[in-house]
Amino acid sequence: MDEHQTAPATPGELPPHPHLTVPREGLRSYLAPGTEPAPAVGVGSVAGAVRSLVGPRQRAAAKVVGTRLLARRATRRLAELHGRGDRLLLNLGSGTYNAAGWVNIDLWGLHALWGVHPDVVWDLRRPLPLPDGSVDGVFLEHVLEHLPAPVGLAAMDQAFRLLRPGGVLRVSVPDFGRYAVDYAARRSGNQGADLLSVVRPGRPTDLLALAEVVYDHGHVSIWDAETLTELLRAAGFVEVAVSTYGAGRVDPSPDSPHRRDESLYVEGVRPA
Ligand SMILES: C[S@@+](CC[C@H](N)C(=O)[O-])C[C@H]1O[C@@H](n2cnc3c(N)ncnc32)[C@H](O)[C@@H]1O
Protein backbone atom coordinates (compact mmCIF):
# COMPACT_ATOMS: atom_id res chain seq x y z
CA MET A 1 0.00 0.00 0.00
CA ASP A 2 1.24 3.45 -0.83
CA GLU A 3 1.08 5.01 2.60
CA HIS A 4 0.86 8.75 2.48
CA GLN A 5 1.31 10.77 5.60
CA THR A 6 -1.44 13.20 4.65
CA ALA A 7 -3.99 10.41 4.16
CA PRO A 8 -6.92 10.49 6.60
CA ALA A 9 -6.44 8.37 9.71
CA THR A 10 -8.49 5.22 10.09
CA PRO A 11 -9.99 4.47 13.52
CA GLY A 12 -7.28 3.54 16.02
CA GLU A 13 -4.52 5.24 14.02
CA LEU A 14 -2.89 8.55 14.67
CA PRO A 15 -4.29 11.48 12.73
CA PRO A 16 -2.03 12.65 9.90
CA HIS A 17 0.67 15.05 10.95
CA PRO A 18 -0.32 18.47 9.59
CA HIS A 19 3.15 19.35 8.31
CA LEU A 20 3.90 16.09 6.55
CA THR A 21 3.64 16.16 2.81
CA VAL A 22 6.32 13.62 1.83
CA PRO A 23 4.82 10.23 1.01
CA ARG A 24 5.90 7.45 3.33
CA GLU A 25 8.11 4.86 1.68
CA GLY A 26 6.86 1.28 1.75
CA LEU A 27 8.42 -0.86 4.47
CA ARG A 28 9.76 -3.52 2.08
CA SER A 29 11.58 -1.10 -0.19
CA TYR A 30 12.90 0.82 2.86
CA LEU A 31 14.30 -2.38 4.36
CA ALA A 32 15.78 -3.70 1.08
CA PRO A 33 19.55 -4.23 1.38
CA GLY A 34 21.86 -1.70 -0.26
CA THR A 35 19.37 1.16 -0.29
CA GLU A 36 21.52 3.65 1.65
CA PRO A 37 21.15 7.12 0.18
CA ALA A 38 23.99 7.96 -2.22
CA PRO A 39 26.30 10.88 -1.38
CA ALA A 40 25.16 14.20 -2.80
CA VAL A 41 28.14 14.81 -5.08
CA GLY A 42 28.57 12.87 -8.32
CA VAL A 43 30.94 10.37 -6.81
CA GLY A 44 28.17 8.32 -5.25
CA SER A 45 28.60 5.52 -7.75
CA VAL A 46 32.34 5.21 -7.00
CA ALA A 47 31.82 5.31 -3.25
CA GLY A 48 28.87 2.94 -3.60
CA ALA A 49 30.96 0.50 -5.63
CA VAL A 50 33.69 0.54 -2.98
CA ARG A 51 31.09 0.06 -0.27
CA SER A 52 29.51 -2.90 -2.04
CA LEU A 53 32.91 -4.59 -2.43
CA VAL A 54 34.26 -3.93 1.03
CA GLY A 55 32.29 -4.48 4.25
CA PRO A 56 32.09 -1.88 7.05
CA ARG A 57 34.61 -3.70 9.28
CA GLN A 58 37.20 -3.91 6.51
CA ARG A 59 36.61 -0.25 5.62
CA ALA A 60 37.10 0.79 9.25
CA ALA A 61 40.26 -1.33 9.52
CA ALA A 62 41.63 0.14 6.26
CA LYS A 63 41.04 3.67 7.60
CA VAL A 64 42.94 2.90 10.79
CA VAL A 65 45.86 1.28 8.92
CA GLY A 66 46.02 4.12 6.37
CA THR A 67 45.96 6.65 9.19
CA ARG A 68 48.77 4.86 11.05
CA LEU A 69 50.90 4.84 7.91
CA LEU A 70 50.54 8.61 7.65
CA ALA A 71 51.24 9.28 11.35
CA ARG A 72 54.77 10.66 10.84
CA ARG A 73 53.60 13.08 8.19
CA ALA A 74 50.74 14.18 10.49
CA THR A 75 53.16 14.69 13.38
CA ARG A 76 55.40 16.89 11.21
CA ARG A 77 52.41 18.89 9.94
CA LEU A 78 51.08 19.52 13.44
CA ALA A 79 54.56 20.55 14.67
CA GLU A 80 54.78 22.98 11.76
CA LEU A 81 51.33 24.46 12.49
CA HIS A 82 52.14 24.79 16.19
CA GLY A 83 55.53 26.32 15.39
CA ARG A 84 53.89 29.20 13.53
CA GLY A 85 52.60 30.52 16.84
CA ASP A 86 49.23 31.44 15.29
CA ARG A 87 45.88 30.76 16.94
CA LEU A 88 45.22 27.05 16.59
CA LEU A 89 41.65 25.79 16.09
CA LEU A 90 41.07 22.05 15.61
CA ASN A 91 38.06 20.58 13.79
CA LEU A 92 38.20 16.93 14.84
CA GLY A 93 36.43 14.42 12.57
CA SER A 94 36.03 16.97 9.77
CA GLY A 95 34.85 14.42 7.18
CA THR A 96 33.91 16.05 3.88
CA TYR A 97 33.42 19.42 5.56
CA ASN A 98 36.58 21.49 5.98
CA ALA A 99 35.86 24.48 8.21
CA ALA A 100 37.64 27.67 7.07
CA GLY A 101 40.16 28.96 9.59
CA TRP A 102 40.32 25.61 11.37
CA VAL A 103 42.79 22.72 11.13
CA ASN A 104 40.63 19.89 9.81
CA ILE A 105 41.52 16.46 11.14
CA ASP A 106 40.09 13.07 10.22
CA LEU A 107 40.97 9.45 9.55
CA TRP A 108 42.49 8.54 6.22
CA GLY A 109 39.62 7.54 3.93
CA LEU A 110 37.59 8.25 0.88
CA HIS A 111 37.22 11.98 1.42
CA ALA A 112 39.41 12.57 -1.64
CA LEU A 113 36.56 11.24 -3.78
CA TRP A 114 34.63 14.32 -2.73
CA GLY A 115 37.66 16.50 -3.47
CA VAL A 116 38.12 17.10 0.25
CA HIS A 117 41.41 16.46 2.02
CA PRO A 118 41.74 16.85 5.78
CA ASP A 119 44.67 19.08 6.75
CA VAL A 120 45.89 16.33 9.04
CA VAL A 121 45.14 12.61 9.06
CA TRP A 122 44.87 11.30 12.61
CA ASP A 123 42.93 8.76 14.70
CA LEU A 124 41.27 10.68 17.52
CA ARG A 125 41.51 7.65 19.78
CA ARG A 126 45.25 8.33 19.95
CA PRO A 127 46.78 11.38 21.66
CA LEU A 128 47.34 14.16 19.16
CA PRO A 129 51.03 15.06 19.09
CA LEU A 130 50.59 18.64 20.29
CA PRO A 131 51.69 20.09 23.64
CA ASP A 132 49.25 20.52 26.51
CA GLY A 133 47.49 23.89 26.43
CA SER A 134 48.60 24.65 22.86
CA VAL A 135 45.17 25.02 21.23
CA ASP A 136 42.59 27.83 21.29
CA GLY A 137 39.49 25.97 20.16
CA VAL A 138 38.34 22.41 19.52
CA PHE A 139 35.25 21.48 17.52
CA LEU A 140 33.59 18.12 16.94
CA GLU A 141 30.58 18.10 14.65
CA HIS A 142 28.59 14.88 14.38
CA VAL A 143 31.56 12.82 15.48
CA LEU A 144 30.74 11.88 19.08
CA GLU A 145 27.86 9.62 18.04
CA HIS A 146 30.40 7.59 16.01
CA LEU A 147 32.35 6.79 19.19
CA PRO A 148 31.25 4.55 22.07
CA ALA A 149 30.41 6.82 25.04
CA PRO A 150 33.61 5.95 27.01
CA VAL A 151 35.71 6.79 23.94
CA GLY A 152 33.72 10.01 23.63
CA LEU A 153 34.70 10.91 27.19
CA ALA A 154 38.34 10.17 26.34
CA ALA A 155 38.00 12.53 23.36
CA MET A 156 36.70 15.25 25.71
CA ASP A 157 39.68 14.56 28.03
CA GLN A 158 42.00 14.97 25.07
CA ALA A 159 40.33 18.27 24.10
CA PHE A 160 40.77 19.45 27.71
CA ARG A 161 44.48 18.60 27.65
CA LEU A 162 45.04 20.35 24.32
CA LEU A 163 43.15 23.56 25.12
CA ARG A 164 44.83 26.52 26.79
CA PRO A 165 43.07 27.96 29.85
CA GLY A 166 40.11 29.92 28.46
CA GLY A 167 40.09 27.80 25.30
CA VAL A 168 36.68 26.65 24.06
CA LEU A 169 35.36 23.18 23.23
CA ARG A 170 32.31 23.13 20.95
CA VAL A 171 30.47 19.87 20.29
CA SER A 172 27.59 19.25 17.91
CA VAL A 173 25.61 16.00 17.73
CA PRO A 174 22.23 14.86 16.39
CA ASP A 175 19.85 15.91 19.18
CA PHE A 176 18.40 12.54 20.16
CA GLY A 177 16.51 14.21 23.03
CA ARG A 178 14.58 16.39 20.60
CA TYR A 179 13.97 13.44 18.28
CA ALA A 180 12.62 11.38 21.21
CA VAL A 181 10.34 14.19 22.39
CA ASP A 182 9.10 14.64 18.83
CA TYR A 183 8.44 10.91 18.54
CA ALA A 184 6.58 10.78 21.87
CA ALA A 185 4.49 13.84 20.99
CA ARG A 186 3.48 12.37 17.67
CA ARG A 187 2.54 9.06 19.30
CA SER A 188 0.21 11.05 21.55
CA GLY A 189 -1.33 12.78 18.57
CA ASN A 190 0.42 16.08 19.22
CA GLN A 191 2.47 18.01 16.75
CA GLY A 192 5.86 17.74 18.44
CA ALA A 193 8.92 19.66 17.27
CA ASP A 194 8.51 18.27 13.75
CA LEU A 195 12.14 17.17 13.66
CA LEU A 196 11.33 13.70 12.29
CA SER A 197 9.44 15.03 9.31
CA VAL A 198 11.90 17.84 8.60
CA VAL A 199 15.14 15.83 8.81
CA ARG A 200 13.92 12.30 8.09
CA PRO A 201 10.76 12.58 6.02
CA GLY A 202 8.99 9.75 4.28
CA ARG A 203 10.15 6.87 6.46
CA PRO A 204 7.59 4.03 6.66
CA THR A 205 7.05 4.67 10.40
CA ASP A 206 8.19 7.25 12.94
CA LEU A 207 10.04 4.53 14.87
CA LEU A 208 12.16 3.63 11.84
CA ALA A 209 13.01 7.32 11.43
CA LEU A 210 13.98 7.47 15.12
CA ALA A 211 16.00 4.25 14.81
CA GLU A 212 18.14 5.82 12.06
CA VAL A 213 19.49 8.27 14.63
CA VAL A 214 20.47 5.35 16.86
CA TYR A 215 21.75 2.72 14.45
CA ASP A 216 22.45 4.18 11.02
CA HIS A 217 25.45 6.03 9.59
CA GLY A 218 27.80 4.06 11.90
CA HIS A 219 26.32 5.63 15.04
CA VAL A 220 27.21 3.85 18.28
CA SER A 221 26.05 6.36 20.90
CA ILE A 222 23.20 8.83 21.35
CA TRP A 223 23.19 12.21 23.07
CA ASP A 224 20.82 14.75 24.53
CA ALA A 225 21.44 18.13 26.15
CA GLU A 226 21.67 16.74 29.69
CA THR A 227 24.09 13.92 28.81
CA LEU A 228 26.35 15.98 26.56
CA THR A 229 26.51 18.77 29.14
CA GLU A 230 27.47 16.23 31.82
CA LEU A 231 30.10 14.74 29.53
CA LEU A 232 31.86 18.10 29.17
CA ARG A 233 31.61 18.75 32.92
CA ALA A 234 33.03 15.27 33.64
CA ALA A 235 36.07 16.19 31.53
CA GLY A 236 36.60 19.31 33.68
CA PHE A 237 35.06 22.00 31.47
CA VAL A 238 33.31 24.96 33.07
CA GLU A 239 30.70 27.42 31.81
CA VAL A 240 29.17 24.45 30.01
CA ALA A 241 26.02 25.51 28.20
CA VAL A 242 23.80 24.67 25.29
CA SER A 243 24.53 26.91 22.30
CA THR A 244 22.80 27.45 18.97
CA TYR A 245 23.83 27.22 15.34
CA GLY A 246 26.44 29.82 14.43
CA ALA A 247 26.44 31.33 17.93
CA GLY A 248 29.65 29.87 19.34
CA ARG A 249 32.31 31.79 21.26
CA VAL A 250 34.97 31.04 18.62
CA ASP A 251 35.22 33.02 15.42
CA PRO A 252 35.02 31.94 12.60
CA SER A 253 32.05 29.71 13.32
CA PRO A 254 32.80 26.13 12.24
CA ASP A 255 29.12 25.06 12.19
CA SER A 256 28.09 23.55 8.88
CA PRO A 257 24.68 24.66 7.54
CA HIS A 258 23.54 21.16 6.58
CA ARG A 259 23.72 20.12 10.25
CA ARG A 260 21.66 23.01 11.53
CA ASP A 261 18.19 21.47 11.77
CA GLU A 262 18.92 18.37 13.81
CA SER A 263 21.90 19.48 15.87
CA LEU A 264 22.43 20.05 19.54
CA TYR A 265 25.35 22.41 20.24
CA VAL A 266 27.12 22.46 23.60
CA GLU A 267 30.17 24.51 24.57
CA GLY A 268 32.52 24.49 27.53
CA VAL A 269 35.61 26.43 28.58
CA ARG A 270 38.84 25.08 29.97
CA PRO A 271 39.31 26.74 33.35
CA ALA A 272 42.53 28.52 34.31
C1 LIG B 1 29.31 12.04 10.23
S1 LIG B 1 30.96 12.41 9.85
C2 LIG B 1 30.98 14.15 10.29
C3 LIG B 1 31.86 14.91 9.38
C4 LIG B 1 31.79 16.43 9.55
N1 LIG B 1 32.26 16.82 10.88
C5 LIG B 1 30.39 16.94 9.32
O1 LIG B 1 29.70 17.31 10.28
O2 LIG B 1 29.94 16.92 8.17
C6 LIG B 1 31.90 11.69 11.17
C7 LIG B 1 33.38 11.81 10.92
O3 LIG B 1 34.09 11.38 12.08
C8 LIG B 1 35.26 10.74 11.65
N2 LIG B 1 35.78 9.87 12.70
C9 LIG B 1 35.14 8.86 13.31
N3 LIG B 1 35.98 8.25 14.17
C10 LIG B 1 37.17 8.89 14.08
C11 LIG B 1 38.43 8.71 14.70
N4 LIG B 1 38.64 7.72 15.57
N5 LIG B 1 39.44 9.54 14.35
C12 LIG B 1 39.23 10.53 13.44
N6 LIG B 1 38.05 10.75 12.83
C13 LIG B 1 37.05 9.93 13.14
C14 LIG B 1 34.81 9.95 10.44
O4 LIG B 1 35.88 9.57 9.60
C15 LIG B 1 33.86 10.94 9.77
O5 LIG B 1 34.49 11.72 8.79
Based on the model shown, name its key terms.
272 residues, disordered N terminus, Methyltransferase domain-containing protein, seven-stranded mixed beta sheet
Mean pLDDT across the residues is 87
**DSSP strand count:** 7
Report Rg: 20 Å
Order of helices and strands: HHHHEEEEHEHHHHEE
What is the CATH architecture annotation of the domain at 41-175 and 223-269? 3-Layer(aba) Sandwich
Q: Percent of residues in beta strands?
A: 15-25%
CATH superfamily of the domain at 41-175 and 223-269: Vaccinia Virus protein VP39
What's the shape?
A: globular
* CATH T-level topology of the domain at 41-175 and 223-269: Rossmann fold
Count of DSSP H/I helices: 9
What is the class of the domain at 41-175 and 223-269 in the CATH system? Alpha Beta
Distance between the termini: 62 Å
- Give the helix/strand class: alpha/beta
Small ligands present? S-adenosylmethionine
Lateral strand order in the biggest sheet: 3-2-1-4-5-7-6
